[in-house]
TrEMBL record:
Pfam families: DUF1308. It comes from Nelumbo nucifera. Residues 293-459 form the DUF1308 domain. The lineage of its organism: Eukaryota, Viridiplantae, Streptophyta, Embryophyta, Tracheophyta. This is Uncharacterized protein LOC104610845 isoform X1.
Length: 461
């Protein structure tokens, strides 16, 4: 293949990668992350354009970075990768001790995201395995030094601290280097299946498919390094000493209660996992984060609200002047929720999110929810709240160190750090309508496992 054709093919690969970046959903990858990737792709395209115009007879290697960018996007497209908050940027390090160990610019991490509800870092290499040495030379520091620095940064970085570091070698790894990783760092095979191929197409001027840019990742080797194995004070070991305060299974045999609470509400609550006969076993599974779902106050209110439980007709039949007197400045907010409920009932939506899960709340949510229901809830809303609380595990406020390390601001309130941080501590996603806090967290670069739901208000039902 001629040099010009090789350059043109590399440019087409860049365009294909840019298209794949654009197609990544914002629910998975933040817009700032997408813009970072697009800047890198455009930089590569500009380099190739200058190369082809300035050196038409160029015969050297073409675009060392396009394969790397393809690998990063390939990882982002995997279904098990969620909550991507940072790509292709250094993790900032601030302490004097860290600065002595690492560059003042920090440690470069290719992807900060969530896998299986736990924060992880991805380090990506698209190099030819024969150029990846263990100890390095005067030109290359070697893989061992790189891994040591990344793990040191992972231990020290409170806000973005990962549960594990994933090493992704898209072109494989030499057997000797592989064995060194296993023996010296206790690396293990990453337990998730990646798709083996990426496939993209380009068009000619007549809009017929002419080029198929497929890439195989069959030779890829992926290792996982658990950060806690190198930490002197692991959060996971502390978690086993944190007692659950209680969970009681309600008695649904009372048919009158079902009539009062509503069939939809009762059916939804019954989909939660309830372990009243074996609480010790339930505690152990909960500590390990198996099937746990953390509820914030907005989620609990959405479950018990009169709007969610058949009260829309009554609200619509109420004269506007009475509604405005009751809800005051919240009138339009409440009516918007009523119309949303008529179009898409929220208990149906929430049923798909909580079915088969063990619901948990922290003490702060427990207290706040009871206070709000007491002040603003009606008779039926109070009954639903009472039954709902009997179905949930109540845990002490125990926010993770990394969430608490975030600066407290107007958008990142201490109360929310405690609630979401407790979910993070237990490796449980938080079900929430508080998207202002979620966006503020994302802007810090932290990957935090959350699930969004539409808001609902207490109506006095």
């Amino acid at each position: 293949m001629s040099p010009i054709r090789r350059i043109e093919e590399a440019k087409e690969r860049c365009i294909a990668v840019a298209n794949r970046v654009q197609s990544l959903p914002l629910s998975k990858v933040t817009d700032s992350c997408k813009q970072t990737l697009l800047r890198l792709v455009n930089s590569e395209l500009n380099f190739l354009s200058r190369l082809s115009s300035a050196s038409p007879d160029f015969s050297g290697p073409i675009s060392a970075n396009i394969g790397y960018l393809e690998s990063v996007v390939h990882i982002l497209q995997q279904t098990f990768v969620t909550g991507v908050s940072r790509v292709c940027k250094p993790i900032p390090l601030s302490s004097e001790n860290e600065e002595r160990k690492c560059s003042s610019k920090g440690i470069h991490v290719d992807i900060v995201c969530t896998v299986d509800r736990r924060p992880v870092w991805f380090i990506v290499s698209d190099r030819n395995p024969k150029y990846i040495s263990w100890l390095g030379s005067h030109k290359n520091k070697g893989l061992r030094a790189r891994v040591e620095k990344v793990l040191s940064a992972a231990q020290s970085c409170l806000m973005l601290k990962p549960f594990s570091v994933i090493l992704f070698f898209s072109n494989g790894l030499d057997d000797v280097v592989t064995q060194k990783l296993l023996n010296e760092f206790g690396a293990s095979q990453f337990g998730k299946e990646f798709s083996e191929f990426d496939c993209d197409f380009s068009k000619d001027l007549e809009y017929e498919w002419v080029n198929d840019f497929s890439r195989s990742y069959r030779r890829a080797i992926i290792f996982q390094l658990k950060v806690e194995h190198y930490s002197t004070s692991s959060e996971s070991s502390q978690g086993c000493t944190c007692p659950l305060l209680g969970a009681v299974t309600p008695d649904w045999a009372d048919k009158q209660s079902q009539l009062t609470l509503g069939d939809a509400f009762c059916s939804l609550i019954l989909t939660l996992k309830l372990d009243n006969q074996d609480m010790e076993s339930s505690k152990q599974r909960a500590i390990l984060g198996d099937d746990l779902l953390n509820f914030d106050t907005t989620a609990l209110i959405a479950l018990v609200s009169g709007i969610s439980n058949g009260g829309t007709g009554k609200l619509l039949a109420t004269p506007v002047c009475e509604m405005m007197k009751r809800f005051k400045s919240n009138y339009e907010f409440v009516m918007a929720q009523v119309m949303s409920e008529l179009q898409n009932p929220i208990l149906v939506e929430l049923g798909g999110l909580i079915s088969g899960k063990r619901g948990m709340i922290c003490e702060s949510v427990h207290s706040e929810f009871k206070e709000l229901v007491s002040m603003c809830g009606g008779h039926n809303e109070k009954l639903r709240a009472e039954y709902l609380l009997k179905c949930l595990l109540i845990v002490p406020d125990s926010p993770s160190e990394r969430v608490m390390s975030l600066p407290t601001t107007r958008k990142i309130a201490l109360k929310n750090k405690v609630i979401f941080g407790t979910g993070d501590y237990w490796h449980a996603p938080t079900l929430t309508a508080n998207m202002g806090f979620v966006r503020a967290i994302s802007q810090t670069g932290m990957s935090l496992s959350t699930i969004e739901h539409r808001p609902r208000a207490l109506t006095g039902d």
